[in-house]
Amino acid sequence: METAPKKTATKPATKKVAKKTTKQAQVGFEESLWDAANKLRGSVESAEYKHIVLSLIFLKFISDKFEVRQKAIIAEYGDEYIDMVDFYAMDNVFYLPEDARWSYIQANAKQGDIAVKIDTALHGVEKNNKSLAGALPDNYFSRLGLDASKLSALIDTINNIDTIANQNEKTEEDLVGRVYEYFLGKFAASEGKGGGEFYTPKSIVTLIADMIEPFEGKIYDPCCGSGGMFVQSLKFINSHNGNQKNVSIYGQEYTNTTYKLAKMNLAVRGISGNLGDIAGDTFFKDQHPDLKADYIMANPPFNQKQWRADNELVDDARWAGYPTPPTGNANYAWIMHMISKLSEHGTAGFVLANGSMSSNTSGEGDIRQKIIENDLVDCMIALPGQLFYTTQIPVCLWFISKDKRGNNEKGLLKRRDRQGETLFIDAREMGTMVNRTLKELTNDDIAKITQTYHIWRGEELTTETAKPESADKEQSAQKEQSENKEQEYKDVAGYCKSATLADIKANDYVLTPGRYVGAADIIDDGIPFETKMSELSQTLYSQMNQADELDNAIRKNLQALGYGEERDGAKRNDS
Questions:
Q1: Where is this region: Disordered (predicted)?
Q2: Nearest-angstrom CA–CA distance, 55 and 34
């Protein structure tokens, strides 16, 4: 069995300041590329054409890097080394045979058999690079029967993308990763319900990563989709001056095409990860049976029905000590699977449907009670609705911790003893609408939630402002004391509550934050009650008078049409 690597690094003190860019600068060429991709609509199913576009972008990206490296090899070693794979691998560049290079595809874009040539190119890439085994579509373009002219137009558009790093992007991975992120979001939106199978909205992924702080160790996602959780974890590390070499990535995905999507998504960013040898069902074909992860991030399928037969996985080791999860809903099977995968100091953050917080169906309440009694629930967050492309319903975040004890060990983040406590956060009123049907959490929303959680855990929130080394030490001490006081956790009515196990037991082991945080305090505006009542009364009288005038006008119009009011069998006529 694998053992989790010992943590030796502390949380970096400063955070990089991101460059400010306009929205137009961020999506400039992505939008033109999206328009070109949309021309394929009607030729293929909407769920298919993302694989076409992203595969071609991937091929363009690795080809551009190959050409740059090839020129460097010629300059440094000579022509005789340009077809030696090791000379490319040593610089983390994929070797490409001639018929697998973008220049070859572009030169043959107008040929009637261009789909076959693309399939051949992708096969050649996999054949010459073991790390990409199983990552690329297999005879995909040929089977789809694409219109050659539309495919050629898409190739021409992709050809205009300069994937080589420039002044706005630090690396090629940043640039192409940006394209992938943009396209995955757009494809998820266009596919609606099906889009949720491979994409979790960025604001939710960012929130989970910022909450659990995956600085070092093993990161695992048992239903990884297109790999968004891994990408955001490494973004988090880089933004806090960490070292992504200190983490290792493990994942699994059920759908074969999405599994390939995830491998490509990681490859274009230069991320090495173990997603298993094949795509497979996490419950029945666990690709990492001996894994103990330090961090788990996941967005399992909501309320997955009939995930096992009545006689299957009844005595599975993953739910040892707990009732067996019911066959009609996999929510608690996912929870138990993730708990079983955590290391002794591990933390998990995952998305589930709101029903998971209170359901008592088929023994789910008994499982939840046991999890709570084992003191594994660290934090529960109720999120607003409309965050997902796939559903309008509100969802929740669970945060599980295998170790709530305080620690002062060198190399570990300093945290207080939280045994017997759970933090509840009600964030249902947060978020902003980005269009008619979709909402997202803002950076300020994410910062507020994560700071609340980290202060509650007893972490010291660092700043980039250095403390004075001499001068007024007394003033410095007072300032530090004031800052520490501001970082003390406090319950806020309507928003957050630190509850004990006794509190949760008194609420029948229901984990819905609204039960604990209560209603928000009403802000006193300073206007005396008498004044308010007088103003409201006058407003009401005015509205009643207007209603009378409207009633009279309507009555006269009806009478003019011959429909006067009847009283005692006779029509009333006021005229």
A1: 460-488
A2: 14
